[in-house]
Amino acid sequence: MSVAERQRRVEHGLSAVLQVAGRPVEHHTLHARMERYRVPGVAIAVVDDGEVSWASGYGVMRAGEARAVHATTLFQAASISKAVAAVGVLALAEHGVVDLDADVNGALRSWRLPSSEHTAEQTVTLRHLLSHTAGTTVPGFPGFPHGATVPDAVGVLSGTGGATPAVESFAAPGTVAQYSGGGSTIVQQLVCDVTGRDFAELMHDLVLEPFGMVDSAYDQPLATHRRHRAAVGHDEAGRPVAGDHHVYPELQAAGLWTTAVDLARWVIGVQEIVRGDRSGPVSAATARTMVTSVGLGVFGLGPELGGSGDLARFGHSGANAGYRCNAEGLIEHGQGAVVMTNSDSGVTLCGEVRRAIADEYGWGHVIGTTVEVAVVDPHILERLAGAYRGPFDRPLRIVHSDGELFSPAPYGRRRLLPLGERTFLDEETGATLVVHDGDDGRLDRLAVVVDGAELMSFSPTERS
Length: 464
Prior knowledge:
Helix content is 25%, strand content 22%. Strands 12-13-14-15-16-17-18-19 form an 8-stranded antiparallel β-barrel. The chain has a 6-stranded antiparallel sheet with strand order 3-2-10-9-8-7, with helices on both faces. Strand 12 and strand 13 form a beta hairpin.
């Protein structure tokens, strides 16, 4: 089958992440799903047989305008930044510049992680921070609108930057798996303190240049001469983000500007090192460690891990204001894919494109499942209906209608499929919503769980 035909099959083979048992599977075109989710632009790159097999852009860089998205259009990689930068941190470790298993406070100079009862017996290390097992706070960052005063990394870590609280410990290192962008920012500050170098320049030399990522940079704010190549971020309603995009001083956690093709080069580079087909920027043994679970949660040393056996995968997803992206590759084979979107609604589209690519290229199960829907007492469903408030005052509203729960979205409501009285699946994102009650028996919060890890929670503000 030709490359063009395989691309066409992917573009016409999207399906919902969740399928309900007994209902036929419906397939959709990429353009139809972009319209459904109000995603103005998408860039895709597919890796097959160790090279970029095909790459393409779809839609526009800004809603209502004609500038087309290409495979080399710049997007914010968001949290994919963590996995890319991890290669640089591990390169420093191989050269003895940093120690993966030493107390980070022994290397930090500009800021120190506050001591607490949680770190009395086991101190926080780079290995903990890279694998999100350090027990540190602040899961993510909202970014700063253009024109706002943007703090440096120390301001972010100390909580004086105005957007997030100070980063601190909430659990003993190595005892929990809790995603922490705050922890990633500790890594950023540590490598800068130890090397005395600018983080963006360091990552260019250690990762981006060796992997041939010629269009990529930890570039915050985005350089003026590069803005014409950047896709504009959009909210779930399809409206452009004020100033086109937010600024993220948390470079390791969220600061990479890149393209679908460049991220595919990162995927290929890691795969080649693991196979022993190239030398540097890290050894094969270190690369293998990077894509091996630490035994707690779903992360290695930087990348998120999925699949198993011959179809085990490494990669990362990303979610900055106005951007949703995903990059991944098979560990043992030269296959992978990158999907980048310029919309908050792109998370669902990324999942559907990933499924289509995995189906076409034989990756096995990637995301989604067939579910048996439980029968739940309507009174229990009514109890959950109402308004909720999440991180950064992000709102959530649950609606009860005709015996079902829905989470309204600007492009149309999404069903929450009951697996039981306290567990629900978002039919389009595949995320699990878990109900938690307080000691008084009243509804306390709704936790959003993905791949077994709690990403965020929402507290009720009103009942309907």
